[in-house]
Structure prediction request, 284 residues.
Amino acid sequence: MNNRYSIIIPAYNEEDAIEKVLKEILTGDMKGQCEVIVVDDHSRDNTLERARKYPVTVLHNIQNFGYGYSLKRGITQAAENHIIILDADGSYPVSALPSLIAEYEKGFHMVVGARQGVHYHGSSLKRIARVFFRLISEFATGRRIPDINSGCRVFRKDLAVQYFHTLSSGFSFTTTVTLAFMLNAYSVHYVPIEYHKRNGFSKVHHIHDTLRSLQIIIEAIIFYNPLKIFLMCALATLLVGMVCIGVAFFSPLIAIQIFLTFAFSMLILSLGFVAVFLRFMDRK
Prediction:
């Protein structure tokens, strides 16, 4: 290991797992090689107290601000330029970190643990959402993305912080930081890791967070590669137009109504995309 690292662990109601994760870091291969920062996102259980039992830096959010916010706060606080992020629920094996670091020290800007195993797949809804988000992201970046939102990764602090204004403060932080690196021509490498069964209950609200993730992904693409979004809208309009040509053989009036309704919807959506882009530009 050539560099020193800051390990950022966002934690929200993880009293059942946080101690095990910290013990593995402080006594394993990473012992003495890293700074550890736990960001407690206003937990309602004993997560904060249990984290404070260990020789690590513990930050406490005065309110529950979200996963991405906690990561941004921890990264900002970090003393080292080489950052590792890891969940507090025990789902990512600490033992996998040396292999990620070994790849990172070959010169990659970011190395991501691509989750494998039975505990990763989850429900049918989660599988469909992952595939859908991955396809959109791969279309936008033109690159293969085995795991768009893995929470176990290594990257450079100085590169990440320059995109903080575009990165999600919620669960989509990892998705948007992946897009930010890829769409700005930074190298992102994936290493397969075994994903473990998490301790406790997931904090993800599937329908709400899925819709929110879709919004965040679209916003990130609009900011970094807006042409791809408008191209998708144009292709969708063309596809509907071709369908309407077929419908016109049976009912020309219905075909016209369908096409005009869809085209008008795409126009409104495109205006929304422009508004999002202008908002991002105003933040810079």
Notes: The chain has eleven helices and seven strands. The beta strands are 5-11, 34-40, 57-60, 82-85, 110-116, 153-156, 188-194. The first helix runs from residue 18 to 27.
